[in-house]
Structure formats: structure tokens, C-alpha cells
Predict the 3D structure of the following.
Amino acid sequence: MNKMNRYLAMSTMIALLMGGSANALAAGVLAKAEPMYNFLPSDTVVDNVKNTLQTNGVDVSNIQVDADAQGVVQLSGEVASKQDVETVTTLAKQADGVYAVLGALRYSTGEVVPAPVPAGLDSVMDAPAAGPESEQPQQIDAQ
């Protein structure tokens, strides 16, 4: 007797001993063949994510929310900080109908990065002179 047949036989015997019917038990076993997850329509998931974000005070004007038929949400756009990326992602995961969240959110670090020095130039020696001499306007003789 294989494992499944043994399981059904034992379950049926237990159900009969407890006063239940074998049909009710078989119906419970067959119910397990139903889908484990009922997906919401993608438009509904997008609306749920946006509403969850707005309810928690997140400005969604710069955030694009997309969802597929299985509840996978894609976030893209720009937010203020790394903390905001984490907050938006966490809140999106809490929305109804969301199975997973993928993020492509960007944020600015506020760090100033100097421009690279062109090849062949010494960044200190070839820089224009700074100081009072360089600020004086040139005089042009008009004749």
C-alpha cells in the first residue's frame, strides 16, 4: 500500500470512529487541491499599494507602482533617502494582494562629487588663479 492510500485509509477509519462520514473527510482532502493563493487583479493590487503608502504619509507623486497577475509589485521612481526606500518597500509588502516587491527606487545622497580632471592636466597646477587679481575687470581703450 503506498503512502497516499495508507493516509486515506487511516483518515477514513478515524472519521468513522469519531462519528463523521468518510465523504466529509474525502471532501476535506480534495479541498487541498485548490489553489493555495487567490490572486487579486493587478489594477486592484496597484491601488492597494498606493492607498497603503498614502495612508502612511508617503508622497506617491514620484513613485511608479506596477503589478503583475501574480501579485509581484515593481516600484520605481525617486525618493528622498535610503530610509524612504526601505519604508516604501516595507509598506508596499503590507498591502493586500502583494506577493512580492521588487524595487528600483532611486535617492540622492547629497554628496558632492568633483568632476574628473581631464587627462594631461594637473588638477592643482593648471587650475585658474583665485584671488583679487583674477577678479579685476580688464580695461579696454575705446577709440
About this structure: Strands lie at 63-67, 72-79, 100-107. The mean pLDDT is 75.
